[in-house]
Amino acid sequence: MQKIAIIGGSGYTGRELLKILLKHKKVEVTKITSENNAGKKIEELHPELFGCYDLRFEKYNWQTIKNNCNIVFLCLPHAASMNFAKETYDSDKIVIDLSADFRIKNIPVYEKWYKVKHTQVELLKTAVYGLPELHRYAIKQAKLIANPGCYATSIILPLYPLIKENLITDNIIVDAKSGVSGAGKKMAMPYLYNEQNENFMPYNPGTHRHTPEVLEILGIKNLTLVPHLLPITRGIISTIYCTPKQGLTQEKINNTYDKYYKNEKFIRLLKNEIYPQARTVANTNFCDIGFKLLENKLILISGLDNLLKGASGQAVQNMNIILGFDENESLS
Amino acid sequence: MQKIAIIGGSGYTGRELLKILLKHKKVEVTKITSENNAGKKIEELHPELFGCYDLRFEKYNWQTIKNNCNIVFLCLPHAASMNFAKETYDSDKIVIDLSADFRIKNIPVYEKWYKVKHTQVELLKTAVYGLPELHRYAIKQAKLIANPGCYATSIILPLYPLIKENLITDNIIVDAKSGVSGAGKKMAMPYLYNEQNENFMPYNPGTHRHTPEVLEILGIKNLTLVPHLLPITRGIISTIYCTPKQGLTQEKINNTYDKYYKNEKFIRLLKNEIYPQARTVANTNFCDIGFKLLENKLILISGLDNLLKGASGQAVQNMNIILGFDENESLS
Amino acid sequence: MQKIAIIGGSGYTGRELLKILLKHKKVEVTKITSENNAGKKIEELHPELFGCYDLRFEKYNWQTIKNNCNIVFLCLPHAASMNFAKETYDSDKIVIDLSADFRIKNIPVYEKWYKVKHTQVELLKTAVYGLPELHRYAIKQAKLIANPGCYATSIILPLYPLIKENLITDNIIVDAKSGVSGAGKKMAMPYLYNEQNENFMPYNPGTHRHTPEVLEILGIKNLTLVPHLLPITRGIISTIYCTPKQGLTQEKINNTYDKYYKNEKFIRLLKNEIYPQARTVANTNFCDIGFKLLENKLILISGLDNLLKGASGQAVQNMNIILGFDENESLS
Amino acid sequence: MQKIAIIGGSGYTGRELLKILLKHKKVEVTKITSENNAGKKIEELHPELFGCYDLRFEKYNWQTIKNNCNIVFLCLPHAASMNFAKETYDSDKIVIDLSADFRIKNIPVYEKWYKVKHTQVELLKTAVYGLPELHRYAIKQAKLIANPGCYATSIILPLYPLIKENLITDNIIVDAKSGVSGAGKKMAMPYLYNEQNENFMPYNPGTHRHTPEVLEILGIKNLTLVPHLLPITRGIISTIYCTPKQGLTQEKINNTYDKYYKNEKFIRLLKNEIYPQARTVANTNFCDIGFKLLENKLILISGLDNLLKGASGQAVQNMNIILGFDENESLS
Known about the structure:
The structure is a homotetramer.
Chain A (H helix, E strand, L loop, with lengths): L1 E6 L4 H10 L5 E7 L8 H4 L16 H7 L2 E4 L6 H10 L3 E4 L9 H8 L6 H6 L1 E2 L2 H10 L2 E3 L3 H15 L3 E12 L13 H4 L4 E2 L8 H8 L5 E7 L5 E9 L5 H12 L5 E3 L8 H4 L5 E7 L4 E7 L7 H12 L9
C-alpha cells in the first residue's frame, strides 16, 4: 500500500480525497494535517466520514510526513502551497498540488493575477499541468502535478480539440456557472445559506483567476470568462460561445472530438443535441461535452463536478497515472 | 371598482395576478376561468390564497364575463389566446394578453416560430407591446396589450438604450437563466422536483421563441440566445455579451441608462460593479441592470422575477397605466 | 407620520422590518443602527432594498434617536436588549423588542435558560407578550412589547384554545422544523450554504430556549420540543402530538378554533384534512393551522413564516395595534 | 458473473440499481424491462448513465429473462409485483422484490392497507423480510426477499433493540421526513419542482402504508407515524419519541445498540449527542442512529438515503448475502 498525506485536509477537497481514497485498493491515507484543527478526529470536521477513518488531524510536521508517506496532496490556499511543495519535492515524494501555484508557467502572469511573488521558480519548471486527457505522457513522468482549476478544466477540455484543429476563430466567450462548493469551505457572508439559496448571480466578470491558465494551455490570447454562482452544492456548467470557421459541420466537430477523446474513460461526448446537466455529472469524475452548431455561432457546453473532475477526482486520476494503476481505480 | 376577469387562471401567472390584485385598491377580480377546474374554489388550486377570495373557477362563457367585467387578462397558452382576444376586444373591453399571440407584428415570423396560423391579423395591428418603460404613451391608449415574454423583458430593457444610442455593434450573445416557474405549471418529466433539484442545464440553444420579439422591438437582425433552467422557483438573470463601439466609457453607459430609465420606478440601475442577483428581485416588479465594461467587451446583466416583471406584475403595471392609476398601485 | 428607529438593523429581522414599513402609509423609518456597519447605506447590507431608502446605518446614540423617533424596534441579540429597552422606555417611547429578554416573567427561569442575569426586573413587569390573537387588549395599552419567539408563536397559537378549553391532556410533543433564516445572519459553519443545502437535521433536542416562554403562556408544566433545520430560507412547520380527552371530536375542535380565531385576519383555519405547507405561508404574516384527530392522538400542524408572523411581521402587527392603525396595515 | 434482470427499471430504484451494479465485480445487469419505454436506451431515461451500459429497455417476457438471468429485481408498483414474483420463483430464480407485496405476513392487514387482494398466499409464506441487520441468517437461505420500505427501515432499525430488550413502553410517535424521490418518478402535481421547492409539509398523518410492516416486525400494536415531504432529493430523517422505562440510562442505551449493531458495516451509532443529518448519509448505504435521553422521553433519530439503505442499496446488500459475496460489495 502506498501511503498518502493530505496537507490542509479540513476543507472540501480534502474531504473528497478522503471519500475517494477510502475505496482505493492500493493506497491509504495515513496523515492528514490542519493547523487549526490538530487533535480533532476526521469525523468532527467531516461527519459523512463517521467511523470510516481512525485518524486525527495533525499540525504539519515534515519529518513525520516524510517518514510515513510517499505521496502528498496539497489542499492549501493559493500562495501557501509553494513552499510546502518544495520541501516535499526535495525529499523525492510525489506531490499533487490542488492550488494554482504551479499551474501557470509564465511567472509575471502568475504574479499579476495572484498578487503574490512566486518563490519556487525552479520547481515551477518541473511541474506538469495535470489534465490527463491532454498530458497523460508527461504526467506519468512527473513528480509535481499542478492540478487544474475547476473552471479551467471545464473550459479547456471542450475547446482544446477545436483550437488545435483550427476549427474556430478567437473571440471566445465563456459563461460559466458553478455550485457553491467551488468557493471552498469559506466563512464569508456570500456563502451563507440564506444568501445563495434561491439565488443566482455573476461575480468577477472578466477577471476570474482561472483565465490565465486557460489561455496558457490553449495557447490563445483572449477569452472572456464570466463566472456565476449556482444555488447547488456541486457542479459546473460552462456555456462557451465560439465563431466557427467557414464550412464547419456537425460531423466534423463530432469527428474531432472522437479523435481526441473517444477512448477517454472520463469524457462523455453527448451527441444529437443532448447537453450536459449539473445533476448527471455530480458525484462522478466525468466531464460531459455537448454542442450546438448554429449558422455563425458554435455553442459548446461542458459539465463536471467541480470537486471531482474539477479537483480531487482529477487529482486521484493523476496519482493513478503516476503510480501505474488503472486510471479509474476508486473513481466513477 | 373596476371588475377583472382572468381567463385561464389555474397556472402560475393567474395565481400571481390574484395575489397582486388582492392588494389593489381600485380593481377586484370577479371572474376566473379554467376549463379543467370549473367548480373548484381558488384555494383548491392555489393554497397560498386560502381564505383570500370567495370565488370559484368557471368554464369560459363570454356572456357572463361581458356583463361582469371590464378588464380581461388572458393567461392562456400561445395560439389559444387569439380568438378569445377577438371576442373581448369586440365588446370594447380592455384585454391584456400574457401569451405570445400579439407580440410579433410580422406574421410570417410569428407563424414560423410558433408553428401555427395567425387568425387575428387585423386585431394584431392594434396590439401594443406592453413594455411600459419603452411604450408608455402607446399603452395608455391601447385596448389590447401584448404582455412581453419574461426572457424578452430581461433582454430588451438593458439593450434598448445602448442600441438606440448606437453604442454597441451587433453580434449580441445572451446567456439567460430562468427559474423553473418560467415553464408554467406543466406536467412534464423535466419539471419534476427530482429532475431539476441540484441541477442546471441549457435548453433550446439558439432557438428559443422569445428571440423574434426581442429582434423586432430592438430592430436588430441577429442575436444568439441560450436559455438555461435554474434550480430556483422564480427569477431570471440574463448575461448579455456585446461589443462596445470605440471610445465607449463607463460614464457614457451610466449616462445613457440614466437618460432612459432614471425616473423609472421599476428599473434599478446598479452601478459601481454591483450586479443583479435572482434573490434580490424575487417577489418584486423590479428589473435590475448592472454592467461591466472590459477592454473590448461590454457585459450587461439584468435580473427580474419572471412571474412579476416578466409576466403578471408587468401586466398589472400595464393595466394601471391604461386605467390612469398610479403605475405602482399594488406592485412593489 | 410616526418616526421609527430600528436598533441593530443589519440582520434579517431588521431587513424585514424595512421591507414591511416601506409599504406602511403612516410610519417611516428615520433611524437605523448597527455598531459594525455605521456609515454604510442600507443597500450595502440589504441589496434587495437598493434605491428604496435614503438612509445609512449609524452607531447607536440615544440622544439622536430620542429626538427623532417615537417608536423603537430592538433587533438585538438576547441579553443585549435589556438595557437599550430601559433607556427607550424611560423616555416614553414605544419599544418593541424582538429578543427574548422580556418574554419570560419568571426571572430564575429566564436566567437559567439564557445563562445571563436579568438587569431590568422592574421593566420586565410592564412588558406585554406580544401575541395579538391572545393579548390584543393588553398590547393596546403597552409601552414595551416582548415580541414572541418564532417557534413559540407556531406552538402557542394552535395549542392555546385546546388547553384553555381543557380538550387535551399534557404530555405534548412538538416536532418543529425551521428554515435557516431562523438562525439569523450568523457567520458560523453550520449556516454555510454547503452545510445545509440538501440537508435536514435536528438540533438541541429537548433543550431549545423557546420552551420556557411556551410553558409560561400556555400555563403548562412540560412539553418536549425538538427543533430541526430545514433546507429552505423561510418557514416553520410545527407538528404537535397531543392526547385528546375522551370524547373529543373533529367538530368540537373546529368549533373551538372558530371560537378563538374565527375573526383573526392572520390565522387561517385549514379544515377537512388540509395541512399547512411552508411554501404557502412564506412571505405572509399568516399562521395556518390544520389538524388530524386519530383514535387516541391529536396531531396539530401549524405553519408560518419565521421572519414575519414569527418575528418582524408580528412586531409590526403589534405596532399597528398600539398606534390604533388597521392591524393589517402594510402586512399581507 | 451472475446475470441480473431488473423488472420495471424506468424509475429511481431501477436507476440506483444500475448505478450500484455497475461497480459490482461479480454480477452484471443483462436485462431491463419497462412496458412504456421498450426500445429506448438506458441513457435516454437515465442520462447520468450515458455511455455506461450497452442495453435497451425491453417489454417483459419471462422466457427471455429466464434464459438469461438468475437474479431478478422487481421494481414494480405495489400489487403489480405479486404475479411476476410467482413466475420467477417457480423457475428457481432469486427474487428481490422492492414493492410492499411480500412484506406483510398478515394477509388481511396487507389487504386493508393496500386495498387489493393478495393473490400469492403460498409464496408470501416463503418470503423473508430483507433487513440484513435483523434477519441475515434467514436471508441467506431465502429465494424471495421482501425488501423493506424506506420509512420502515428508518423506524425499525433504531427501535428494534430497545423493544427487544424491553427498555421502552409503547406509545411511540414517529415524525418522519423524506426527500421527494421517496415518491418515485411520479407525474403528479405535488411532485413538480415549483410545488416542493422551498416547501415542507406533512402528508397522510397517521395513515402511511409503511405502518403495518413496522408493527409486524417490531411486534407492537400501535405507533403513530406522520410522514413529511422534505425539499431535498434524497434522505430520510425519522425523529422517534418513546417513553423510557424507569432507570434507563444513556449507557444502557449505548450498550444495547452496541450489542445489536456494533459489527454492522452499514449502521453507524453516533454517540455523545451527535445526530444524523440527511446530507451525511446521502449517496451511502448507511443508517445512522443517534439519541437523546431526557427526563421522561427518549428521542431516537435515524437517517438514511431512501433510495439506497431505504431501497436499492439494501436490495443489493440482500443479494450479496444470498450469493455469499462480501456484504458491502459495490456498496459504500
